[in-house]
Structure formats: C-alpha cells, structure tokens
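User: I'm designing a mutation panel for Multimeric flavodoxin WrbA-like protein and want to avoid disrupting the core. Could you give me a predicted structure to guide residue selection? Please restate the sequence first so the numbering is unambiguous.

Assistant: Good idea. Sequence first, for numbering, then the predicted structure tokens:
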Amino acid sequence: MAEKKKILVMVASPKNERSGTLIPTKAFVEGLEQNGDYETEYIFIDKMHIKPCRGCLSCWGREDGSCFMKDDDVPMIREKLINSDIVIWSFPLFLFSLPGQMKVLMDRIVGMVHPYMGQKLKEGANALNSHLHGLQFQKEGQKIILLSSCAWMDLDVVYEPIRKQFDIILGHEGYTLIACPQMRALDHRGGPRRLNMLREKYRKGGAELATTGKLSQEAIDMMQKPIFSEDAYVTLVTEFVTHMFDRDDNF
Ligand SMILES: Cc1cc2nc3c(=O)[nH]c(=O)nc-3n(C[C@H](O)[C@H](O)[C@H](O)COP(=O)(O)O)c2cc1C
C-alpha cells in the first residue's frame, strides 16, 4: 500500500480545541481525507513551548536555515513543516493580522525562507508571483493554505494586510488564502443547521483539492460566501456586543 501523504494543521487560535476556525478547518480536512490518500496531524501552537526570536539572523547563515535555539519545540515543528505535503495554518484574524502566538513561531522559522539580499519586487506582467523571499527546504510540491476566520464580512478589506504580507513573503501563488467570515456569530448563534451548511461547503472544498490537486476560484468563493444575510448579521452582531457581559459563552 502506498504511503499516505501528510497534512499538517497548525492551529493558531488561543482557544485551542474550542476555536471556531477549527469548525471549517476540520471539515476541509475531512474532505481532503475522503479518498484515503492523506493522514493528518494537528499542532496546537498555544500549547507548544516556543521562545521568541532573538533577532540575530544567524539562521540565514546556517546551511539548513535552523535557529541556534534548540531547547524548545521549534526544531520539532520545523521538521514537520518541512516534511508535510499540505500545511494548513488555521487562525483567527486578530486586528487585521495574525494571532501573536503564530507570529512568534513564524519569526523563529524565518530561516525557512530565502534570505533577503537586496532583491526587489517585480512590476508589471511579472509582478503576480514576485516575492522577496520564497520558501527553501520544504518538501517538493508542498501546498500552503491559510484558513482563517474573522468576525467581519468584507473579506477584501479585512484580509488585505494578510494578503499583502504573504504575497511579499511567499509570492501570490506560494499560498492559498481561504477566509471564513462571520465565524464568531456562527460559532455561538449559528445553530446546527447553519454550522452543517458551513461544514458541507468546506468538505466539498477539501474534496476538490484531494481529487484535482487544486482549489478552483469557484470552490474558494463557495467556502467564503457568508452564511448570514447582511441584515440578519448586523442585527446579530449588535445584539451580541450589547449583551457581551450578560453571557456565559464569552469566557
Ligand atoms: C484580539 C482580537 C482581535 C480581533 N480582530 C479582528 C479583526 O481585525 N477583524 C475581524 O473581522 N475579526 C476580528 N476578531 C474576531 C475573530 O477573528 C473571530 O472571532 C474569529 O472567528 C475567532 O476565531 P477562533 O474562535 O478560532 O479563535 C478579533 C478577535 C480578537 C479576540
């Protein structure tokens, strides 16, 4: 029997198992696994021992790009990141950016991207996949997926900083962003029917990637489509924020 390909899910929500982002993430993984070709490991970043980067950049001088600090969980995580076929970063949007724990880890693995040696972003026709770094060392054909949830609905606006950051680091075609809007309200007020609709869409998306090796723009649009109508959502969010302190699901 052929060896299974590896999916690594990097869970960056500080809520760990209670993360709302895990709902679409797990459904996407189920879709990916449906043909039996993949096996999956979840790493909860918040539970890992990760010291902050010291800023020396000595990793870029080492042949394998590794950090000089070897006494925490980063060397183990780095090995798994390098050797996986699909890496899914599952994270909530925090202030239009990444949760702090994920950023601390990303700084520690900066040696996984090519060093900056004065290169410039290309312009015009070649600009699309132009980047300042790009990954080195990762398994051939590896796919990187950013699966992120947020509270807002206007995905183009709220994910612009993340897109810009990853376009510059990895190149536009070096990763795929799937953004899941309205997640907080869905998690707490969606009810089983809406949550199952969401799961079904993400299962379909994962299945498409497993079967075709690609994610079409149609599949991404389908996963990203808000579940609540705009009016219903505004009413819900207003109620949610107004009664923030009356609830026990708020922890
Ligand atoms: C500190 C903080 C900052 C946030 N910033 C944003 C934001 O900039 N835009 C947005 O749409 N949602 C924002 N949110 C909402 C979360 O992204 C949203 O609730 C997400 O679905 C939580 O996912 P999780 O349950 O997996 O942690 C923020 C939440 C927190 C706690």
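For picking mutation sites, this is relevant: Residues 7 and 86 are 5 Å apart (CA to CA). The domain at 5-226 is CATH 3.40.50.360 (Rossmann fold).
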